[in-house]
Amino acid sequence: MPSRLIRPFTASTTYRRWVHLILGAVLAVPYLAVAGLVLGPLLGPGIGLGLPPVAVGLVQGAFVVLAVVATGLLPATRSLSGAAAKALLGLPESGGADTWPDRWRTVCWLVVHLVLGSGIGLLTLIVPPFILILLADPLLHLPPELTGIPLYRTLGIGRWWAPLAGAGLIVAGFHLVAGIGAVPARLAPTLLGPSEHERLRRQVEELSERNRIASELHDSVGHVLNVVALQASAANRVLDSDPAFAREALAVIAESTRTALADLDHALGSLRSSTLDEASLAGLDDLIRSTELAGLAVRLEVRGDPSSVPPQVSRESYRAVREGLSNALRHAGRVAVAVRITIDTGALELEITNPLGSASTPGHGLGLSGIKRRAKVLGGHAEGAAHGGNWRLHVYLPW
C-alpha cells in the first residue's frame, strides 16, 4: 500500500506524462484565444453584431470544433503528435497519415490530448498557489484577504490543520496526474499507431528487403568461394616450387573467409523466415516438456484463452517463449524459469524470468533482436534486460 502512494512521485512516467498533458494545454490556447478574444467581441453586443450570449457561445464552440478537426486532418499533425507521444509516452511506433481513417484517428487523438491537457494545465496553474498558502499560513499568519478565510471554512479545517490539507492536495494531485496521464498512454498505440494496411505494407517492404539482402549475400559469398577455390588450387600446384606464393595465396584465402563470415553474420538476422514455422501456443505443453527434459525447471502460468489469439500473434508468442527458454538453458544452465502469459482483449503480454547463471555460452544476440523485430512488425514491442540477479524478457503483442 505505501508503495502505491509513493509510486506516482518516483516514477519517471508521471513527469513525462505531465509534460505531455501540459503540451496539450499549450496547444489549446490558440483555439480558445481566437474564440474568446476575436469572435466574442465581433459577435457580442457593443461593437459586435449584438448576438445573444447563447448564440455567441454556440458559434465559438463550433469554431473550436471545426478548427481542431481541420488541424487534425493535416498530415503534419500526425507526425508531430507521434513524435511527442514516442518521446513522452513511450509509443513504440507511430503510423503515417496516408489514408483518411488515419487522419480521423489523429483528430480523435487531438481532441483527447487538448481536453485532458487543458484540464490538467488549468489545475496546474490554480492548485499550487492554494497549496503554498495552506503550508505557509500557520507560520506566516498571512492576511485574510490573501489566504481567503472562506477557503478554510469550505474545507472545514482550522488554520493549524492547513498544512495537512496542503500535503493531501499534493498527494492527490500527483495521483490525479498519474491516472489521467495513463489515458493517452493507453490510447496512443490505437490512435497514433500504424493501421492494419500500413503494417501489411511494412511487412511486404521487409520481405522485399530480405530478398534484396539474400541476393546480395549470394553474390558476395559466391564471389568469395570462387576466390577461395582458385587460390587453394594455385597454392596446391606451387606448394613445393614457390612456397612464398603459396603463403600469399593462403593469406588471401583467410582474409576472404573472414569477409564471407562477416557478411553472413550481418545478414543472418534479416534472412530468417517465419513463413515455415507454423508453431502456436497450442504446442506450449510439448515445448515445456522437452525443455524440462533438457534440465530446466519451468513454471508456466497462462491467464486468458489461448484459442482467442490470432494465428500470427500465437506463432510469434510461441517463438518468443522458445527463444527465451533456449537462452536460459544456453546462458544460465539448469535453473528455474518462470513463464507468464496474459491474454487480454486485443493484446498478449509475455514475461519470462530466470536467474543469471555462470554457465554462459557466447552468443550474438540474434535471437533477441529477431523477437524485437517481429514484435515491432506486429505493432508491439519486446525488451530483454538484467534486473538484479535475474534476466527478464518482456514481449507485448497487440492485434
Q: What's the short version?
A:
With 399 residues, the protein is α+β, with helices and mostly antiparallel strands. The chain has helices spanning 2-10, 12-43, 53-72, 75-88, 100-140, 144-147, 149-155, 162-192, 196-237, 243-271, 284-293, 311-331, 366-377; strands at residues 297-303, 336-344, 347-355, 381-387, 390-398. The protein folds into 3 domains: 2-193, no CATH class; 197-271; 281-398, Heat Shock Protein 90 (2-Layer Sandwich).
Describe the structure.
The chain is built from 13 helices and 5 strands. With 399 residues, it is of the alpha+beta class. It has 3 domains: 192 residues, no CATH class; 75 residues; 118 residues, Histidine kinase-like ATPase, C-terminal domain (Heat Shock Protein 90). Strands 1-2-3-5-4 form a 5-stranded mixed β-sheet. Helix 2 packs across helix 3 and helix 4 crosses helix 5. About 3% of the residues have low confidence.
Task: Describe this protein with a few key phrases.
399 residues, alpha+beta, Heat Shock Protein 90, 5 strands, elongated
* Tally of individual domains: 3
What's the β-strand tally? 5
Largest sheet: 5 strands, mixed
Poorly predicted runs of 5 or more residues:
273-277, 359-364
Mind sketching the topology for me?
Layout: H1 2-10, H2 12-43, H3 53-72, H4 75-88, H5 100-140, H6 144-147, H7 149-155, H8 162-192, H9 196-237, H10 243-271, H11 284-293, E1 297-303, H12 311-331, E2 336-344, E3 347-355, H13 366-377, E4 381-387, E5 390-398
Parallel strand pairs: 1-2
Antiparallel strand pairs: 2-3, 3-5, 4-5
Helix pairs in contact: 2-3, 2-4, 2-5, 2-8, 3-5, 4-5, 5-8, 9-10, 12-13
